[in-house]
Every structure is written in C-alpha cells, then in structure tokens.
Amino acid sequence: MEAGQLVRGVLPALLFGGALVGCTPAQDETVGLERHTVEVDGHPMAVWEKSPANPWGTVLLLHGRTWSSLPDFDLQVQGEDLSLMDGLVAEGISVYALDARGYGETPRDETQWLTPDRASRDVEAVLRWIRERDGTVPALFGWSYGSMVAQLTAQREEELVSGLILFGYPVDPDREPAAANPASEEPPRIPTTAEAAASDFTIPGAISQAAIDEYVRHALEADPIRMDWRNLEEWNELDPSEVRVPTLLLQGEMDPFAPTSRQAAFFSRLGTPDRMWVTIAGGDHAAHLETPRARFIQELVSFMNRPEIPASGEAPGQAPDIGSNRSTEEVARADEGSATETGIRIELASISVEDQDAALRFYTEVLGFEVKENMPVGEYRWLTVTSPAGAAGVELLLEPVGNPTVAAFQKAIYEQGIPATIFFVSDLRAEHERLADLGVVFTTEPQETESGWLAVFDDTCGNLILLHEG
Questions:
Q1: Distance from CA of residue 377 to its chain's centroid?
Q2: CA spacing 20 to 30 A to 302: which of 20, 47, 227, 246?
Q3: Alpha-carbon distance 10 to 335, whole Å?
Q4: Are 356 and 400 in contact (CB under 8 A)?
Q5: Cβ neighbours for 379, distance < 8 A, ≥ 6 positions apart
Q6: H or E element at residue 433
Q7: Is there a contact between 448 and 436 (Cβ–Cβ < 8 Å)?
C-alpha cells in the first residue's frame, strides 16, 4: 500500500500523537500449542510451537533473564488477547519459543549453570532443527536477556538467521569489559517472587490487574527457582559491528532497561545497513503484553515481510523475505513492479515537530526535502516530505506534537542531547559546510567515530538530528 493510499484509506481513524493500531488477522483458525523436545549435545530442550495452516514466515522467540517462554510469549487471560504467539500466528507466521536450560520445561544440565556461550549454542542447534524441519531460515527474536543471546547467535552463525529482532536490549556498547569471575561450584538457586514477576509492568493502566495476576501465577509456576548464570565475561563478545543480518531494534518508550542513549549507540554501530529502530509509544519493558501490543506486532510483522537487500548479482526483488517460507519466485511475483534499486522499501516514518509550518520550511528550504502530501486533518495537516537523494517511495511525516506524553518525551531527550532520529549522507563534511552556511546550528561538530563520521544538528522544531556518513 502506498503511503498516500494509507492516508486516504485510514485517515479518519488516525489521531495525531497516538499510534495506528489494529492488525488485521490473516488467519482465522485457532491453533493449539505443541511441545517439541530437541536434543542438544544430549540435553533435552523444550521448544514450543504455534503455526497457522499456511504460514508465510517463521520466527524463534527467546525469553528474558528470569521467566520462560510461556509466561512471556503465550499468556492466556480470559477476555484479553495478550499472547505474542497468538498475535503472530494470526498474521500468518509460524512461531517457535525456546525454554533455555533451567527455564520452564527444560531442565538444568549436569553443571547446574547456564553461560552465554552455552545459551547461544543451544539456540544455534534449535535454529538448525527448525531449518531442517520447515525448510526455512527463521527470524530470531530476543527479549531483554534473550536479546543478548540472540545477538551473540547472529554474530556467530549469521547463515542461520534471516533477520534479528531485539526488544528491551539492555547492553551499553560503551561498557567496560566484564572481568572473569571465579567459578562457583554450587549455584545459589534463589526462589523467584511475585514482586519480581510483576516488576516489568511499570506504566499504570497499560495492562489489567487481572492480566498481571495471571502473569505472576504462570511465571511462578513455570519458574519457581531463578536460573543461575556464570562466565558472564563471555558477553564481552557482543559487538554491534559484527551483526551483519537485517536487524530491527524495538524500544519501549518508557523502558527503564533500554534507555535511548544505549539504543542509539548500538544502532549507529550495527554492521548491517539493513536496520530499523522503532520506538513503541506508551510501552515499557513488557510492551508486547500491554496496550501497545498491536503496534508491537505490526512493526515486527512489517519487518519480517519486507524484502531483504539482494546479494551481489541478484536482481531487486529476488531475495526472499525475512523469515519467509515462500520461494524466491513467489516473492519476486509478489514484489513485481514495486521493488526499488536496493530491494528495501520503507514507505513511512515520522518525527514529532513543534510547529508544522516551521518544520515545512526547514525540511524543504534547508534540508532540501520535497513535499509529498499536504492535506488538512482537523487543526493539523498530514504533511509528508521525501528526500530526492533517498529511496523512492519513502516519506517522512512531520507529525505535530499533539500528545502531552510525546511532548514531554521530545523535550526530555532534546535537553539530554539525544538525537530523535538519524539521517544519512554520502559526504558528511560537505553537507555540514552546506548546512552551516544556511545557518543550521550544530550541537556536535563533525567527528570521526568507530562507526564513521557523524554530527548532530538542531532542526528548529524541537529535535536534534544525528547526521551519519554512510
């Protein structure tokens, strides 16, 4: 759907300052939960599956530090739709979820410990099992601690992962390397608590109390003892520049474990040009279980369902979709006439602006963008611009700050010097000189970093913009 068609088709339901929600199910049937046992180096790993009748994609879900797959990804509450697995199945995706060693229905091994290396090697084995079973290379989704395991796996075995999806990613790329700690023989085996189970739900009203109670009950039943980890210095291997598969970074707007500064540092250093960073407005560390769930699923599905960058020598549109079960020919037919030169087509992104008229002047007269859509919507306008130097069909919505929460967030990150988004140029120093001559204020002058040349400027509309050469 073209962005213009999207506007004309759903604009009456759009409220500025909120999210477009309501994913349309692609599958109507109810599917059951199936448990598999996958032997990895002689140890039984519990793998859960829900699949529609005719899936077009596949994803493997990795849970967080304390709780296993079913509380995290298949929470069932009467009268509420909270299961991430069900939401993805409804969109036509086969979903697998792995209980790591010592979690849920996967027992501890003889060491009684889990390490980053062991967790990653287990995921590798399950990815190979899925590939052999379904004939597809799945996308890999990790939440919180699971996002670290997912990254480590994608760095090591990129051929097993069609796309990497990280949510609640907690790692600071500028952290000091962890020192090796003395191995302990006996794990502490600390009991889990109801307070810990409810701790991720930090936004009042984002999830019902009944749902929290059910999550706590299921979590404590599935994981009464907190799993013990050691050899944490193995996390030092995490390096965003070594991630070379398509990557989606999902961030809850108010996630205390994934601050924007860390997300920006991670995102800017990724080793893949095929990357997206999406903030889920109104979400915290458990956004996939809360009111932004529909938007969360929408972003995940959109990422999986878009074409990959073609490999050298491939024609645009020939590469299979991320996690897709469709053949190359089927994808090429579906994308016929719509693929761009690079094989990537993101149709619409947005940035909040304090004044649409001022933003229009700055983004067109100064940055050189062109107006694509400019139509009234109540007291505001649907105002989009495109970059002549960018990919065809991509539009940037200059969205008015009509929501107090959005305004407060915009003000907070601006005052902290955090860029609201990233634009790319082929020659940063030349672009800096051009913009400076036009009076643009740079809060960070051009500087060379590990990820290349970058600078930060003020768009005069309440945002800082990171300009990156690449």
A1: 30
A2: 47
A3: 23
A4: yes
A5: none
A6: helix 428-437
A7: no
Return the CA Rg of the chain: 22
Checking if the pLDDT of 299 tops 60, the result is: yes
The whole-angstrom separation of Cα 7 and Cα 1 is 10
- Alpha carbon distance 137, 149 (integer Å): 18
Cα(37)–Cα(28) distance, integer angstroms = 28
Separation in Å, CA 22 to CA 16, 87, 262, 444: 16, 11, 30, 40
Question: CA–CA separation, 335 vs 169, rounded Å?
Answer: 32
Global pTM value: 0.65
Residue 143 burial by CB count (10 A; 0-12/13-18/19+): exposed, middle or buried? buried
Signed CA dihedral, 434, 439, 440, 444: sign only: positive
Burial class (CB in 10 A: 0-12, 13-18, 19+), 329: exposed
Residue whose C-alpha is closest to residue 424's, from 368, 369, 466 = 466
> Using CA atoms, how far apart are residues 320 and 199, in angstroms rounded to an integer?
39
Residue 259: how many other CB atoms lie within 10 Å: 16
Give the domains, in start order, of the chain with CATH numbers: 31-305 (3.40.50.1820), 347-469 (3.10.180.10)
Please list the residues that pair with 163 across neighbouring strands.
139
Strands 464-469 and 421-425: parallel
